[in-house]
Amino acid sequence: MKFESATIKDIAKALNLSTSTVSRALRGSFEISAETKKQVLEYAEKINYRPNPIALSLKERRTRSLGVVVSEIANNFFSQAINGIESIAYNRGYHVTISQSHESGEREKVNIQHMAARGVDGLLVSLSSESVDLSFLKELHDKGLPMVFFDRVTQEIITHTVVANNYLGSFQATEHLLQQGYRRIAHLTSSPHLSITRERLEGYKDALAKYHLPFEESLLRNCPHGGMIQDEVEDALNSLFKGKNSPDAIFTAGDRLTMTCFGLLKRLNPQRHIGFTGFTNTQVGDLFAPSLTVVRQPAFEIGQSATELLIQMIESKRPVTEFQNKVLDTELIIRESSMKMK
């Protein structure tokens, strides 16, 4: 049985009014008497009438919907960022459509093109690890589709961006390990071309330089899927620990990568203490054994800021020509995993 929602025609027929009178009454028009408005609104509530969003979108030339593209909703950072996005969108009368790229450039492209075809008013995008050719995004942007990039951003498209202070978070995490006495600190990170990868690598390198230690390529491992594929992380760890000069600490540069690596490390090296810290927004870091030292990003606030900027663009009466690059500070939460064994 096909579901059919109540319409203005249903209200008009039941109350013996014209559809134009009902429409004006629902809009609160001054042309309609208070008594008629009350009658229409009470009956509309009784039959659970709701305006047709498709009809409204055709009239207003807007759908009041936002498209969100992330790599994986199960990622602690992205789930919290989405909460921030929805908190602003809901209060401003916008619906949110969420899609996952699963680090696939092709899936990201298909998802974005589908949302654009469905008429979303704007896009909030965090790029996948395979996102190299952004020509399809540039084309949509050039056609006037508002978009804001967050977390994983690009400089190829001139628009608002909202990120964490990846450099500072990485510098502080690496310096903390150095202050604990670790000297061979391995760095596990994602695809080399991602903005977060570059910024976090720079912070790691500069912390080493501050303590007069050279950057060693042999201690760097790229895991292109960011911890989503366990075998990829396990291969990286096995290659780090197979030689004589294996690391005494590990710093990971991604949420899912941190969680996957920390779990594998305990299984692969159960008898050896390895200093550990990483980027992750897990809320249960103190429940791990040892408790987990983390670089925490303001994910909820990043989602909120990106959404506010996007809605400003959508609702602006004039073309937006000045853009912000918002950088929000991270927080280093020190626990047992990074402490040097006495």
UniProtKB/TrEMBL annotation:
<dbReference type="GO" id="GO:0003700">
    <property type="term" value="F:DNA-binding transcription factor activity"/>
</dbReference>
<dbReference type="InterPro" id="IPR010982">
    <property type="entry name" value="Lambda_DNA-bd_dom_sf"/>
</dbReference>
<dbReference type="InterPro" id="IPR028082">
    <property type="entry name" value="Peripla_BP_I"/>
</dbReference>
<keyword id="KW-0804">Transcription</keyword>
<protein>
    <submittedName>
        <fullName>Transcriptional regulator, LacI family</fullName>
    </submittedName>
</protein>
<dbReference type="GO" id="GO:0000976">
    <property type="term" value="F:transcription cis-regulatory region binding"/>
</dbReference>
<feature type="domain" description="HTH lacI-type">
    <location>
        <begin position="6"/>
        <end position="60"/>
    </location>
</feature>
<keyword id="KW-0238">DNA-binding</keyword>
<dbReference type="Pfam" id="PF00532">
    <property type="entry name" value="Peripla_BP_1"/>
</dbReference>
<dbReference type="InterPro" id="IPR000843">
    <property type="entry name" value="HTH_LacI"/>
</dbReference>
<dbReference type="Pfam" id="PF00356">
    <property type="entry name" value="LacI"/>
</dbReference>
<keyword id="KW-0805">Transcription regulation</keyword>
<dbReference type="InterPro" id="IPR001761">
    <property type="entry name" value="Peripla_BP/Lac1_sug-bd_dom"/>
</dbReference>
